[in-house]
Amino acid sequence: MNAGFTVAGEHILWTDLVGNIASLAVVWLAMRKTMWTWPVQLAGALLLLAASIDAHVPGNALKQALFCGLACYGWFSWARGARDHHDLLVRPATARERVLLLGTLVVGTVAVAELFVNLTWLHIAWSPWVNAYIFVGSAVATFAQSRALVDFWIIWMLVDLAGVPLALKSGLYVSGAVYGVFFVLVLLGFSRWRREYRDRQLAAPITAAAAPADR
Asked: Which ranges does the record mark as transmembrane (predicted)?
């Protein structure tokens, strides 16, 4: 797992590099709503799980393990949505869903931070709160993604703001650099999904008005 190469005196793990390339690919694939999003995310999570174990970052390792499960859930959720509508329909979260997502983020962060503080074997000495925020935020974002909610892009933006310093502090330099690129791609993805939803809403009255004439 510790195979890699050296750049400017820093050891770069192949698992960290390839895993993060897969993570960037996931954003590009998610923008296009392709089912390949989920197997690529699963592969990237497995590679980053190995990198986190080698870097002795158990909090991030737990996050990647969670991603493996969410990737499987996302696959079945998108497959069901595409089967029901012939295309995956994206939409904004309802007010109730947003309250639940934000509530889970806040309560989950507090609970996981306390867990990280008390479980000393996890060795999360540097800011367990940041680790907990990224852990829970990533899970919430991925769940919202599996539900085809436009809001998942916003949650990812918030997670990215904490991801860069944490990755650099942990010695995962590739991950730190990727977080910056990831942020830009997430902005593009948010714009694309939101535009698609708005275009569908604008087209709906036209389609409804044309329906009687077709009959």
From this structure: 12-31, 38-55, 61-78, 99-117, 172-190
